[in-house]
User: What shape does this take?
Amino acid sequence: MIVEHLSENDIQQYVSDPSACGSQVARHIETCEICQVKAETYRVLFSGIQHQPQPVFDFNLSDLVLSQLEQPKPKFSWEIMMVYLFSVVGITAILVLCLLLHDYFTSLFAGSSTLVFYLFVVIAFTSLVFQGIEIYRNYQKKINALNIS
Ligand SMILES: [Zn+2]
Assistant: This one.
C-alpha cells in the first residue's frame, strides 16, 4: 500500500479514467478518506466543466476575420518563368539525347542479361523515389518554417 497520499495528477487520472490507473492508486483511494474527498472534488469540477455551455459569438467570426485578410494578387514573376524555361530546356535536351543515343542505349544492354537491365532500372527508380521524397521533405520544412513565423 502507498503510505503517502496520492499526487494531484494521480487523483485526476483516477477520476478521469480509473482503468488507466494502477491497482495501488485505486486501493489507496478506496481506503484513504482525504484522497476520496479530493477525488470527489475533482469529479464535481470535471462534471461542472463538461456541463458548461459552449461559448457562442453573436457574429460570424470566420467572416469577420476573412474580410480583413488581404487577398493575394497573382503577379508575374521572372523567377518562376526562369524555372519553367530551364525545365523545358532540360527536358528537351534529355529527349534530344535519347533520340540521338537511341542506338547506343539499345546496344548497351544487348549483350547483358535481362536481370542486369532490370537491376539497373530498379536502382534508378529507387534513387529517383528517394530524391523525390527528400525534395518533398525540404519543401515541407520550408513551408512549416514560413507558417510558424
Ligand atoms: Zn491518501
